[in-house]
Write a structure and sequence with these properties.
alpha/beta, Rossmann fold, six-stranded mixed β-sheet, globular, 3 domains, 11 strands, about 525 residues, binds 6-O-phosphono-beta-D-fructofuranose
C-alpha cells in the first residue's frame, strides 16, 4: 500500500462518512496558541495520515527541522542558512548552534537600531518642529508584501503617521503620492535586501529627486532610510550610513518581515505592536521545533497540502480570509508558497518526482462568495479551500460578525456535504445539484492580534518548509525570477531603437511594432 492506494480508496469515500469518525476528527483538529485549525473536512483518513507521517519520517523531516533551527546551510544552491526564526527569538532564548546564536545577536542589535529610530522619529520628528506625518515604503515582493500585510491587518486605528506603499514600476502610485504628500513631513524607506532591484531603485530615485528639489540635499538625507543586506550600495545611492538598517543573507526576502523590513510598519504603528507580532511567531517556532510531528500544526498542514497536491492531484488551492483586514493574505501566500516551492528540481539538481507548489489564489469572504464560489461548489475542477476566520472582531457590531462567521461555516459545510437533488422532480434539479465532497480547512484565530498574525504567518512558513522536505526541494532560493529580469534589461533599448528590436524574436518584434504605432 502506498499514497496512491490511499488516494484511490479515499476518492471512493465521502466526507459525510469520514467526518462521523470522532477519533479521526481528534487527529485532524489542533490548537496552537491563538490558532485553531480544523482539517477534518479534508479527504483523508487515519491510515492515509499514518502513511504521510511515515513519508515525513523517511524524508528526514525531523533531522531537517533540527538543521533549520541550527542554521545549517539548507539553502544549498546559494550556500546560505534560512534563519528567519532567529529574528523572532528573545535575548534569553537558547540558540540551537553557533550560526543561530550569531543570527540572534545580529537580529537583537538591528532591532535596537530600529527601536531607536522609531522612538526618535515618533518623539522628535524631523527637526524644525516637523513631525513625521507620512511614511513611504518603497520595495517589492518580500520587501513590500510583509509590511503591507501587517499595516492592513493590525495597523488599523493606531495614531501615528500614515503609511504608503510603492512597489511596482508602474509610476501611477508614485506620481499620485508625489502630487499630494508634503515632503517636509515625509520619511521614505527604501527596502531591498539586494539593493539591486530595478523597480525599487527607480522608484527610490523619483522620491529622492522629489525630496531634494523641495528640501535640498540635507533635508532629503534626513528623510531617507534603507533596509538592506547591501549597505555599501545603499550608501552609494545616497542614504546616510546611520540610516541604513541591516538585514542579512540568511533571511530570504519572502521570510523577512520580522526583520528591519518591518521598520516602516513600526514607524507608523509603533514598535510595541511589532514586538507582539514577533512574540506570536516565536511561540509558533517553539511549537514547530518541539511538538511531535503528529500533533504539530505546521507539519499537519504540510502533510495535508502534500496529500492534496501529490496524492489527489489538486493543482490549485484557494485561500479565503473572512476578515477584510486579511485581504492581502492570498497575495502574501502566493509569494511565500509559489516562490518557495514552485520548483522542478530537487536539492541536488535532479528532476523532482512529484508535482510541487499548487497555484495559490483567493479573495475575501463574503465578497468571494458572490464572485468565484460558484465554480468552487459546482465547477468541474475541485479546488481545496482554506478558510480563515477571526472569532472576536475588533468592532462592536456582533450581529454582523455572527452573520460573517455563519457564512464561513456554511461554505465549508456546503462544499463538504453538498445537496443532492438528483431524486427531485424539480425540472432544474440537475442545475441545483451540489455533489459535495469538496475538501476545505478552517483556521480560526481567537482575535486578529499581532500575536495571532505572527503565529499564523510563522505557521505558513514552517508548513511550506515541510512541503519542500517531503518532495526534496529547496524552498529558500528563487532562480525562476531571474530570467525575466535579465530579458527585460535586453528589451528596454528595443522599445526606442529599431535596430535593437530587429535582433529580437518575431513575437516580441510584432508587439513592439504595435506599441510604437500608438
Ligand atoms: O524577484 C523576486 C525577489 O527576488 C523576491 O524574492 C524578493 O522578495 C524581491 O525580489 C525583492 O528583492 P529585494 O528585496 O532584493 O529588492
Amino acid at each position: 500500500m502506498n499514497l496512491v492506494d490511499d488516494a484511490a480508496r479515499l476518492r471512493r469515500s465521502t466526507l459525510a462518512q469520514l467526518t462521523l469518525d470522532d477519533e479521526r476528527g481528534a487527529r485532524l483538529r489542533l490548537r496552537s496558541g491563538p490558532l485553531h485549525a480544523d482539517f477534518s473536512r479534508q479527504l483523508v483518513d487515519g491510515a492515509a495520515l499514518d502513511r504521510l507521517l511515515q513519508l515525513a519520517e523517511r524524508a528526514g523531516l525531523e533531522r531537517m527541522r533540527t538543521e533549520l533551527a541550527a542554521g545549517e546551510a539548507l539553502n544549498s544552491s546559494e550556500g546560505r542558512a534560512a534563519l528567519h526564526h532567529s529574528l523572532r527569538a528573545e535575548a534569553a532564548d537558547a540558540a540551537d548552534g553557533e550560526a543561530a546564536s550569531h543570527a540572534q545577536a545580529e537580529a537583537a542589535r538591528a532591532a535596537q537600531l530600529v527601536q531607536g529610530w522609531v522612538d526618535k522619529l515618533r518623539t522628535d520628528g524631523l527637526g524644525e518642529g516637523r513631525e513625521v506625518r507620512e511614511v513611504v515604503n518603497i520595495g517589492i515582493g518580500g520587501s513590500d508584501l510583509g509590511p503591507r500585510l501587517l499595516a492592513e491587518a493590525i495597523g488599523g486605528g493606531a495614531p501615528g503617521p500614515r503609511l504608503h506603499f510603492v512597489s511596482s514600476i508602474d509610476a501611477h502610485r508614485a506620481a499620485d503620492l508625489i502630487a499630494r504628500l508634503d515632503p517636509a513631513h515625509t520619511v521614505v524607506v527604501l527596502v531591498s535586501k539586494s539593493f539591486g532591484t530595478e523597480e525599487t531603485l527607480l522608484n527610490g530615485n523619483l522620491f529622492i529627486d522629489w525630496l531634494s528639489r523641495a528640501l535640498g540635499a540635507e533635508g532629503m538625507r534626513a528623510r531617507v532610510f534603507a533596509v538592506t543586506a547591501n549597505i555599501a550600495a545603499a550608501e552609494k545611492f545616497g542614504v546616510t550610513a546611520s540610516r541604513c538598517l541591516p538585514i542579512w543573507e540568511w533571511v530570504g526576502g519572502r521570510y523577512s518581515m520580522w526583520s528591519a523590513v518591518g521598520f516602516s510598519f513600526a514607524l507608523a504603528h509603533g514598535a510595541a505592536a511589532f514586538r507582539r507580532l514577533l512574540d506570536g511567531a516565536r511561540q509558533m517556532d517553539r511549537h514547530f521545533f518541539e511538538a511531535p510531528l503528529a500533533r504539530n500544526l505546521p507539519v499537519l498542514r504540510g502533510l495535508i497540502e502534500h496529500w492534496n497536491r501529490v496524492a489527489l492531484d489538486h493543482r490549485s488551492r484557494c485561500v479565503v480570509p473572512y476578515d477584510v483586514r486579511l485581504a492581502l493574505l492570498p497575495a502574501y501566500l502566493q509569494q511565500l508558497e509559489m516562490e518557495s516551492n514552485g520548483k522542478s528540481v530537487r536539492r541536488g539538481g535532479e528532476p523532482v518526482a512529484q508535482p510541487t507548489a499548487p497555484v495559490v489564489w483567493g479573495g475575501v469572504g463574503t465578497d468571494a462568495q458572490h464572485a468565484f464560489f460558484q465554480a468552487l461548489h459546482q465547477g468541474t475542477q475541485v479546488v481545496p479551500v482554506e478558510f480563515i476566520g477571526v472569532i472576536q472582531p475588533a468592532h462592536p457590531h456582533q450581529a454582523h460578525h455572527r452573520v460573517l462567521l455563519a457564512n464561513l461555516l456554511a461554505q465549508s459545510a456546503a462544499l463538504a456535504y453538498g445537496h443532492d437533488t438528483r431524486d427531485s422532480d424539480d425540472p432544474l434539479a440537475a442545475h441545483k445539484h451540489h455533489g459535495g465532497n469538496r475538501p476545505s480547512t478552517v483556521i480560526l484565530l481567537d482575535a486578529l492580534t499581532p500575536e495571532a498574525l505572527g503565529a499564523l504567518i510563522a505557521m505558513y512558513e514552517h508548513s511550506v518548509f515541510v512541503e519542500a522536505c517531503l518532495v526534496g526541494i529547496n524552498p529558500f532560493d528563487q532562480w525562476g525570477v531571474e530570467l525575466g529580469k535579465r530579458i527585460a534589461r535586453q528589451f528596454l533599448p528595443a522599445l526606442s531603437s529599431e535596430a535593437e528590436a530587429a535582433a529580437l524574436d518575431p513575437g516580441t518584434q510584432a508587439l513592439i511594432r504595435e506599441i510604437r504605432s500608438r
